[in-house]
Design brief:
By secondary structure, the chain is α/β, with parallel strands linked by helices. It contains 14 helices and eleven strands. Helix 1 packs antiparallel against helix 11 and helix 12 runs antiparallel to helix 13.
Length: 339
């Protein structure tokens, strides 16, 4: 049982047994990674972000099978959308629900320069009126049983105007009827430099639950969550309803298991042995082969291999072996050699 401080997470009509979510990770959180996350303890895992135009242009062919196919074992399934035009946002959200997704998350947070430069992602923290209009229209268009959530950062930059814009945006999102927000404790301009401001997340939770009297709107915290102890401490300090783990679980699905144990007051499991790592990496690779095919699997898995190598005592040699790997046969040879 999760301790009383860590209750089941409710997002609209969806209820998850623990406040532990895998964040959408561009280029990473595909079906094999999400499957591992759930197996190791994530109560919910979101797909990597979809550009709204991509969703509308994809047919029922290979790309649809790879990215937009929702299996019964995936449910409840969440999809994150990014775009710049409210009409396209709405059309894409409707298509995702038609395809079987149970929750739509709007990305108003991505700090990548080329994304912001195209008036997408984190740009909307500097344009709250436009962001509110998108959220309002998406919420109005979708069935009432499909929660709409939003990913934010604490502001666009640290100017007074930008900080005020965050609260204007948050007020508008609440009025639009969103079911939850996930807030990263860095600004858009800050990207991943410096540290995430969890004091700000505490203020957001208090503002939503107390000042706005909307405790039913879930507030998730994000940023610098790399250990189970940190997750538990941040939740205790801020009172957020849950956490969305991102970079900390790339190549380390064991963090979900460790965090579950910490939340339940049990001893935190030790880091995985080399044998355990080998079994999970092999499982991950086989799932990638099954989804993408033998020809693409090794290329797709390299970035994961680099991440997995960080847990190995001879990490640099293992990293280089994965980086230079070009065949499935060589991949399994690396596992035999180093694990």
């Amino acid at each position: 049982m999760i301790s009383s401080l860590f209750l089941p997470l409710k997002v609209g009509g969806l209820v998850f047994d623990a406040p532990l979510v895998q964040a959408p990770l561009s280029g990473y959180s595909d079906a094999p990674m999400r499957r591992l996350a759930r197996r190791f303890g994530a109560s919910f895992a979101l797909c990597e972000v979809f550009l709204d135009q991509f969703v509308l242009s994809v047919s029922k062919g290979t790309k649809s099978r790879l990215y937009l196919n929702v299996k019964d074992s995936d449910k409840p399934a969440g999809a994150q959308l990014m775009g710049s035009d409210s009409d396209v946002f709405v059309s894409a959200a409707l298509k995702l629900v038609e395809l079987g997704f149970d929750l739509i998350d709007l990305n108003f947070a991505c700090p990548v320069k080329k994304v912001v430069g195209k008036c997408r992602g984190g740009f909307f923290l500097s344009a709250p009126v436009r962001a509110i209009e998108i959220a309002r229209r998406v919420r109005h268009a979708l069935p009432s049983n499909v929660p709409v959530t939003v990913k934010l950062r604490r502001c666009y930059d640290d100017s007074e105007e930008s900080q005020k814009a965050f609260w204007t945006l948050l007020d508008g999102l609440i009025d639009a009827g969103i079911s939850g927000i996930a807030v990263h404790g860095r600004s858009v301009v800050q990207r991943y430099r410096g540290t995430a401001d969890w004091n700000f997340l505490r203020d957001v939770k208090e503002y939503v639950a107390v000042k706005k009297n909307c405790p039913e709107i879930s507030v998730l915290g994000c940023g610098d969550l790399f250990t189970a102890e940190t997750v538990v401490r941040r939740m205790r300090e801020t009172g957020v309803d849950g956490v969305a783990l991102a970079r900390g679980v790339i190549g380390n699905p064991w963090l979900f298991k460790q965090t579950r144990a910490a939340m339940e007051g049990r001893p935190i499991p030790p880091p995985p042995s080399l044998v355990e790592q080998k079994e999970v990496i092999a499982e991950h690779f086989r799932d990638v082969i099954e989804l993408y095919g033998d020809r693409r699997a090794t290329t797709i898995m390299r970035k994961f291999g680099v991440a997995y190598s960080k847990l190995h005592p001879d990490s640099e040699k293992v990293r280089m072996a994965f980086v230079t790997c070009k065949t499935t046969r060589r991949w399994f040879e690396i596992l035999d050699e180093f694990y």
